[in-house]
Specification:
Pfam families: RasGEF. InterPro entries: Ras_GEF_dom_sf, RASGEF_cat_dom, RASGEF_cat_dom_sf. Helices cover about 70% and strands about 0% of the residues. The protein is an all-alpha fold. The radius of gyration is 25 Å and the shape is globular. The model has no long low-confidence stretch (mean pLDDT about 90).
């Protein structure tokens, strides 16, 4: 039975929670961070019964509101935003995060804001908005390089969550690829030109591509950016990620990781890998061999009866592109065209079945943004544009001076 919690009239949280007005002010998170950093308020909060519950409630309200804003702004791409507009929105959102943290003068306030953005990232992940999750992740990692907040003793209790945020693993990759795949319209497979030519890809297919490219960049950055023996450790880590993706029946991710390891395996010299990892890596290379139209890879997923299976998209698009080309060649030959169309529809039905098995886990969230959040975003957008103009002006003046 859950415990009933009440707020006394003399409580520090009385006006903040009971009246709710404070929580919907455009600048409320900033004011809150400043408020809880004051020594007198820290004492009041510590003395209060159930203060941890009230504190967590306020923090969750702010974190969820920001996640809702980010989700809505990033999902606009699927309606009417161009690639350029979408890229600009992402830059504004990144600026939003950095400004929210850096404008505080004390590290205590910065830490509270930083920690709340970690919560926001995980809420976005629960919303299956991996674009937003990675955007917050990358921005916080950049902020950490500048501010070194995780080194502060006050951050110790939040360090586990931060380390979880920065870690890329097979579970995250599996979630992301299957979710983004489930959202690709079937029409993009029926006419798969967008898979070969990015300019012809729809917004959801582009999001899928960008998710793949993000994984590729993480793999390359982790391995190539490592020093000395850590480079071998990182290479082995990604071998394990590939194997874990196969165990999760994710052949899209499995093939993606293997092909990207192949591109940089020149950094591994003879004798660098232990016998066990050398054996594992050779097996990965064998599975990804293009011989016999990727026969070994096709045999792997052909023998996999899991309802959670994701076949490599390159296979479907190649099959359907070839079939479309043959259908064009048979124009006017109705009997053969009927058979070919039946085969095409069979393949599309298999893709739809795959997508539906993943889509069932994804909840749709409202993209309606409360007025106070729209107001806050508009203010940040104006600041971002002013800052961009100032940078451009300074660059122009420096060029003239040179």
């Amino acid at each position: 039975m859950s415990k009933k919690i009440t707020i006394s009239k003399s409580s520090f949280f009385e006006d903040l929670i009971t009246k709710q007005h404070f929580l919907t002010q455009p600048d409320a998170p900033f004011l809150w961070d400043e408020m809880v950093a004051e020594k007198e308020n820290i004492k009041k909060i510590k003395r209060e019964k159930d203060s941890d519950v009230f504190f967590a409630y306020i923090e969750s309200r702010f974190a969820y509101a920001y996640a809702k804003l980010f989700n809505a702004k990033l999902m606009e791409r699927n309606v009417n935003a161009s690639d350029e507009e979408h890229s600009e929105v992402k830059k504004i959102l990144a600026y939003f995060i950095s400004d929210d943290i850096s404008r505080h003068s004390s590290q205590v306030s910065q830490i509270n804001a930083f920690r709340r953005w970690i919560d926001t990232a995980f809420i976005l992940r629960k919303m299956h908005n991996y674009e937003g999750y990675f955007l917050v992740r990358d921005t916080l990692m950049e902020m950490e390089e500048e501010l070194q907040l995780t080194q502060n003793k006050a951050f110790k209790s939040h360090l586990k969550m931060y380390n979880q945020l920065v870690q890329i693993n097979a579970t995250l990759i599996d979630e992301q690829l299957k979710t983004d795949y489930s959202r690709i319209p079937l029409q993009d497979f029926a006419n798969p030109d967008g898979f070969a030519k990015r300019g012809k890809a729809g917004p959801r297919l582009k999001t899928f591509f960008e998710g793949r490219e993000y994984i590729e960049s993480c793999l390359e950055r982790e391995i190539m950016g490592a020093q000395g023996g850590n480079q071998i450790k990182m290479f082995c880590k990604w071998i394990d990620i590939a194997i874990d993706l196969r165990k999760k029946h994710n052949y899209e991710g499995y093939f993606l990781v293997i092909t990207n390891l192949q591109l940089i395996d020149r950094v591994i010299k003879a004798g660098d890998l232990s016998q066990s990892y050398l054996k594992k890596y050779n097996q990965l290379l064998a599975h990804a061999s293009p011989f016999d139209n990727f026969g070994k890879l096709r045999k792997l997923w052909g023998n996999d009866n899991s309802p959670d299976k994701l076949i490599s998209t390159f296979y479907w698009t190649k099959e359907l592109a070839n079939l479309n080309e043959k259908m064009e060649q048979q124009e006017g030959n109705e009997d053969i065209l009927v058979l070919m169309l039946r085969e095409k529809n069979r393949k599309l039905a298999l893709i739809a079945k795959e997508q539906q098995s993943f889509a069932g886990r994804v909840v749709s969230y409202s993209t309606k943004i409360p007025k106070h959040l729209e107001s806050e975003f508009a203010t940040i957008e104006k600041q971002y544009n002013n800052n961009k103009e100032e940078v451009a002006r300074a660059k122009f003046l420096n060029t003239r001076g040179a």
